[in-house]
Amino acid sequence: MAVKDKDRNVIAQNKRAGHDYFIEETYEAGIVLKGTEIKSMRLGRMNLKDSFARIVNGEMYLHNAHISEYEQGNRYNHDPTRARKLLLHKKQINTLIGQTQQKGYSLVPLKVYLKNGFAKVLIGLAKGKKNYDKRETLKRQDAKREVDRALRERMKG
C-alpha cells in the first residue's frame, strides 16, 4: 500500500512567510481561476512571493500572486497578477474580519496545491515578526542543525 504524500501536489510555497511571520491559524480556501490560469498552474508556473489576502465587502481576495501566462492561451490569456477570489465559508470570513482588525495581524498565503483536482490555497493568520524575533528563530535553527549534525557524526563513528 503506497503512502500518499501531502506535498506531492504542491504548486507554489511562500517560504518567506515562516521567516517573516508567526503563523497562528491556517485556513484552506478554494480559488476562483480562469481556464488558462489552472493550466499554467498545473505546469508549476506560479509564484506567491509578496502576495497577500484581503477581505473586501465580505469576500476574500488573493492579491499579487503571479501566475504566468499559458503559452498556448493566445487571446484567452489572463492578467498574471490580477486579484483572485478565495472561497471560504461566511462564518470563517467573519471570524477573520475580527482577527485581522487587531494590530499587527494579516492574511498570508502559505502554499497553493491541488486537492482532488481543485486548486486550494492555505491561508495563514499571521502576526509580523520583529527583527530580534527573526534573529532568535535563525539561532534556534542553527543550534538544531548543529545538534543533528553531531548526532549523525556520533552514529557513524
Automatic annotation (TrEMBL):
Check the record and name the PROSITE patterns matching this protein: SSRP (PS01317)
Task: Spell out the CDD domains in the cross-references.
Answer: SmpB
Q: Which parts of the sequence are annotated with region: Disordered? A: 136-157
Alphabetically list the UniProt keywords. Answer: Cytoplasm, RNA-binding
Entries under InterPro entries matching the protein:
SmpB (IPR023620), SsrA-bd_prot (IPR000037), SsrA-bd_prot_CS (IPR020081)
- What coarse category fits the chief subcellular location reported for this protein? cytoplasm
**Any Pfam family hit:** SmpB
Q: Where is the protein found, in the record's own terms?
A: Cytoplasm
User: What function does this protein fulfil?
Assistant: Required for rescue of stalled ribosomes mediated by trans-translation. Binds to transfer-messenger RNA (tmRNA), required for stable association of tmRNA with ribosomes. tmRNA and SmpB together mimic tRNA shape, replacing the anticodon stem-loop with SmpB. tmRNA is encoded by the ssrA gene; the 2 termini fold to resemble tRNA(Ala) and it encodes a 'tag peptide', a short internal open reading frame. During trans-translation Ala-aminoacylated tmRNA acts like a tRNA, entering the A-site of stalled ribosomes, displacing the stalled mRNA.
Q: Which family does it belong to?
A: Belongs to the SmpB family.
- What protein name applies here? SsrA-binding protein
Annotated organism of origin? Halalkalibacter kiskunsagensis
Q: What is the lineage of its organism?
A: Bacteria, Bacillati, Bacillota, Bacilli, Bacillales
Q: Which gene holds the coding sequence for this protein?
A: smpB
